[in-house]
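Lab intake sheet, docking and co-folding queue.

SAMPLE TYPE: protein with bound small molecule
LIGAND NAME: adenosine monophosphate
LIGAND FORMAT: SMILES
REQUESTED OUTPUT: full 3D complex as structure tokens
PRIORITY: normal
SUBMITTED BY: R.K., bench team

The fields below were copied directly from the construct record.
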Amino acid sequence: MNIIVCLKQVPDTETQISIAADGKSISTDNIKWVMNPYDEYAVEEALQIREKFGGEVTIVGVGPKRVTESIRTALAMGADKGILVDDQAIVGNDSLGTARVLTAVIKDLDYDIILCGKQGVDDDYGIVGSMLAEFLDIPQISIAVKLDISEDGSKVTVNREVEGGTFVIEAPLPALVTAQKGLNEPRYASLPGIMKAKKKPLDVKAIADLGLDAGSVGEAGAKIEIKEITLPKPRQAGKIVEGETPQEKAANLAKFLHEEAKIL
Amino acid sequence: MAQGIWIIAEQRNGDIRKISFELVSEGRRIADKIGQPLTAVLLGSNIKEKASELGKYGVDNVIVADDDRLATYTTDAYVSVVSQMAKEKEPAIILLGASVQGKDLSGRLAARLETTVAQDSVEFSIENNKLVARRPIYAGKAYATITFKDNTTQLATARPNVFELNEPDDSRSFDIIDGEFSLDDSQLKTKVIDVIQEATGKADLTEAERIVSGGRGMKGPENYKILDELADLINATVGASRSAVDAGWRPHSDQVGQTGKVVSPNLYIACGISGAIQHLAGMGTSKIIVAINKDPEAPIFQKADYGVVGDLFDVIPALAEEVKKVL
Ligand SMILES: Cc1cc2nc3c(=O)[nH]c(=O)nc-3n(C[C@H](O)[C@H](O)[C@H](O)COP(=O)(O)OP(=O)(O)OC[C@H]3O[C@@H](n4cnc5c(N)ncnc54)[C@H](O)[C@@H]3O)c2cc1C
Ligand SMILES: Nc1ncnc2c1ncn2[C@@H]1O[C@H](COP(=O)(O)O)[C@@H](O)[C@H]1O
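RESULT FIELD (auto-filled):
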């Protein structure tokens, strides 16, 4: 079973975001770049599927050269090979542009299942997976917390979280599934894994290699325009509720919520 | 020229979900600003009689797509129906809920219509007759304001619980139209084979008006019953920090934060939660934040409107008693 994982690199979730001088992007000084946390679940799931069915796990990333580090991390976890698309023409990609580039890479590969993260914890779009599935004309199941592939490898059954419940969904393979926290516990890269990863193939491709028109991706192909990026109004510390005993504090709090905040 | 504003309504088991009314209400405000009609699209099975519920909130038309195969949401069927109609009628703006269903549909629909999505928007405005959307990024650590390039379908999802509901008005007039579409069974590849409802009957965290959340300070899973008791009294949903989830005390679906659910209730009560950056990102837009923590230096107090320094095992039961008195 051949499995593809789409991997995005994002700022570490510890990052305090600040705005760049252009007012339309975030400042990338001092950012620690990591594999998108949801993509870790996708990589782990891919490895578990390979352990059961055999085959190969291929990691595909779109972005600048630094993304190779995160692809290497996935290889160190156990993936077999990586592909990075790095090209000046993809700068300014919106989700549609990214999906187009991924499509161009993946359409010629041999795959049974494609795994993505539920969303990038940077732009919080959560749509690249669905767009890719649409362009490849395969079914999608998003927000998976459980994934089973039938013994004969013909279909996938996924538990998908919805508000107040779970949908159990079935689709024929090939299909695309997006990973939610809870799907599995991602393994750490072992030291031998890290050593081995250095020798695993990692291809870097340009837009021209993929037969893509540079005008359909990057800034030129983008459908949206960012007007501005701002920081939220900082929240001020409010009041500490006074009282001699827990009961008094609780009584004062209930009173504040009822009379002042008018929320109870 | 693309014309008109569409909202894609959402139903589960034939009941129209609240986000649909929020979409109609906000859609009405946008429609009035640009002087174009507002249409709701309602997909389901035997759903026509529910169309009037949308009408009360201010639509001009409801297009009903009625088919057995639309009873329960599947990406394949819904994207097929909505895209066919949208390609024919060419609305300028399409709004969906930033719910699980709306987010799933929006990406695929966008690709089919060769556009992208202003996902999870919290504010819309109109400039030069175009939609401007403000949306949180980095789980709310920052906000992006975006518009669409010309000649692009402006597709956006609206975060639940953010947009104000219009006053329902039975005297509003609107048309109900039978939608025209074709559904090809060979295109319907995904099947819903089971729906597991949670027994709680509580609002989902993403839609809850009030949340009581417990972190590592809860000390163990058995102690969440004191949160449940308080939550029941004030009709709140119970949430958790990642530490509590990773310890196995609470299910993953309860996690609030950057890698959990991003919530915006009117009232968020954080109990035994320190206030890590990833947690704050997920609940920082709550209207009123209350923190109960025994450590006066806990970062959560920097964000809380009301802070109680104390042992939660004393404060929470006492609060439950006091709440009974004021309610
Ligand atoms: C990639 C990544 C993603 C993450 N995403 C999330 C996320 O989405 N959501 C999230 O919550 N975290 C997330 N985290 C984890 C986050 O960094 C913190 O570790 C976590 O939020 C801490 O949880 P806590 O506040 O419950 O525990 P702690 O930080 O251990 O705080 C416990 C608090 O309880 C108080 N306390 C203890 N006993 C009592 C008592 N008897 N009465 C009153 N107070 C008491 C203590 O004073 C302390 O402040 C993420 C981390 C990483 C690395
Ligand atoms: N630049 C990228 N390269 C590879 N995969 C990506 C990229 N952007 C998004 N993805 C995939 O799509 C998922 C959702 O991302 P997004 O739609 O940006 O929130 C990610 O978790 C990845 O699996």
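REVIEWER NOTE: Chain B has two domains: 5-187, 210-326.
SIGN-OFF: pending second check by T.M.
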